[in-house]
Amino acid sequence: MIKHRLTVQTPPNPEMLRKPEWLKVRGNFGDNYRNVKNLIGDLNLHSVCQEASCPNIAECFSHKTATFLLLGSVCTRGCTFCDIARGKPEHLDMDEPNRIVEAVRRMGLKYIVLTSVTRDDLKDGGAIIYAKCLEEMRKHLPEVQVEVLIPDFRGNKEALKTVIDAKPVVLNHNLETAERLYPQVRLGSNYKRSLTLLAQAKEFDPEMITKSGIMLGCGETWEEILEVMDDLREIKVDLMTIGQYLRPSLWHLPVAKYYHPDEFKQLAEVGRSKGFRNVFSGPLVRSSYHAGEQLSSPVY
To answer: Which of 148, 151, 208, 256 could staple 219 via S-S, CB 3.0–4.6 A?
Structure first.
């Protein structure tokens, strides 16, 4: 599958945006990394770590963790920040949940994150696969906690309810950026629709722990970051992640700013002061990075 190439402008002075030292990652590509990569391939599964070119892949694979990518590896949308392939997806694989269970069993995991490409070609957006994964995990590996990072399902409340009824330990849906930037960053998505989905999750299950995340460096202002936090707290979102946007290729959205680690630390403190149960904020933080720790630890 050839990845869709996005037509975007390069920064007027790329030297001004040279990647800072704190974003340079040294990977551990030892036996654990190779074993996890081979296991995912052998079971015909996908990981967001690989498909989205995550900078933490070496760390996570070396610690025998991965975020599983459901519903194939081809997305029906074309967000300008994302490195996942865009195009016409393949058929729905109803056996995928069984292979997820087998992968988790072999890896000996106790906490996993399930996410997916966006499947606007499916009436329920693929919610049935999320639910089946949760049901199979509970049946065969009941000790494993499952967090889900879901798409917006195009605002389909029944699709959301299908996932909620299957009882994930955390329901995550990322806003990704400020509302003003959606037309440039999140093609096919809608800021208010995403907020509504997170609010509806609490309506379906008031005890459900909800989570959302944003990436910095797409052109947002500091005030807009705080506005996103306020919007999430207004609908009682519990957990938040904040990370640095890294441009996957010259075809993607340029980085407007690299935030300093001290700014991320400040945002974590601001977020907790606004009432979030926990905020993971740092240059290399991603929505599923150390997800189990975020749920269980009081601070980052």
So the answer is: 256
